[in-house]
Amino acid sequence: MDNKIKPAIIGGVVLGVLSSIPFVNFVNACCCLWAIVGGLIASYLYVKASPTPASAGDGAIVGAIAGIVGALISLVIGIPLAIAASSMMQGLMLNWLSNMDPAQADLFRRQFEAGSTVAGAIVNGLIQAVLLFVFAVIGGLIGIPLFEKRKGGTLPPPPPATGGAPYAA
Predict the structure, then answer these.
(1) Distances (CA, A) of 65 to 74, 89, 145, 153
(2) Pick from 65, 66, 45, 41: which is nearest to 54 by CA?
(3) What is the SS3 assignment for the chain?
(4) Distances from the Cα of 149 to the Cαs of 6, 39, 167, in angstroms?
(5) In this structure, what is the dihedral angle of CA atoms 110, 115, 117, 121, given to the nearest 10 degrees?
(6) CA gap 140, 36 in Å, rounded
(7) HSE-up of 91 (CA within 13 Å, CB side)?
(8) What's the rounded Cα separation, in Å, for the pair 119 and 24?
(9) Other residues' Cβ atoms within 10 Å of the Cβ of residue 96
(10) Which of 24, 50, 89, 115 is at a distance of 20 to 30 A from 109, taking alpha carbons?
């Protein structure tokens, strides 16, 4: 288990920090891409350091640990940054909404205002934390077949010889 912690922490820090930085975190809108990248990094580093071939279970474990680390970082850093950047984001959104249909713009405006409160930021942060965990596990699972090229276990015995000449004693 000890050899899983370091790769998982590195992957978790990557996904947590990138998921917290305003504007950079928009990449997560594409299937939680930073979470998948964090899980992939964790599984890559684990495979590289592991003396034995890694299994899918190993990928799930390092992905889960990376997801927990990344989710915690995202909560601790991301919620305050989201609250601090909400006025800047609101200005950008209002500028973008001015070119839309007024009915749609009003709907977006109400949804954005609900999410820009402290309570909204906390709820959004908790939802994001769960998604980061799930997608980091997926990234860890995807990483093992991508990066593990060693054959696992012992080779099965060869099949019995059929046909051909019998032993000559």
Answers:
(1) 14, 31, 19, 25
(2) 45
(3) CHHHHHHHHHHHHHHHHHHHCCCHHHHHHCCCHHHHHHHHHHHHHHHHHCCCCCCHHHHHHHHHHHHHHHHHHHHHHHHHHHHHHHHHHHHHHHHHHCCCCHHHHHHHHHHHHHHCCHHHHHHHHHHHHHHHHHHHHHHHHHHHHHHCCCCCCCCCCCCCCCCCCCCCC
(4) 21, 18, 39
(5) 180
(6) 7
(7) 4
(8) 23
(9) 11
(10) 24
Considering only the C-alpha atoms of the chain, give the largest distance between any 2 of them, rounded to a whole number of Å.
Answer: 95
Burial of 15 (0-12, 13-18, 19+ CB in 10 A): buried
Tell me the whole-structure pTM to 2 decimals.
0.74
Find the helix packing angle between 56-73 and 33-49, rounded to 10°: 130
